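Archive record
______________

***
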Amino acid sequence: MGLVAITPMKSTATDDRDLIDVEGGLVWNDQNFNTLQIQDHTLKNGNNPPRATSYELVPLRSGTARHTEGFTKKDFWVTRYNPAQEFLADNLPDYVRARQSTVNQDLVIWYTGSEHHENNSRAEDNDTVTVLWTGFDLVPNNLFNRTPFYP
């Protein structure tokens, strides 16, 4: 039995980071790894040189629901913080109509998680509550200048 040389193929994968510079909604693309990196340009860790601290919103998805409500048409929403606005998902399309800049602003990040209600599983119909889970992980990046477990 002879040896066969294996030539690795060049990777075609890319990790793009697009700045969301105006308010709006974004659609999840299940063909990509979709996360949302949330970063304040002034927050840095204690490294030398300091590195930007950020959090990455990583969705836990089992599907995508699109209903008649406007907020279900997008999966992520980015809005400028406005204390006069009520934090109601139904109002999201109205909050982003002006498409204001998000650069150097206090922001509110909205994530739309979907759940599938099986037929006849609604609490209102059966006097029971079916357990369904959706959510996201919020992963810190460059939070510390070193790991606390390694000298």
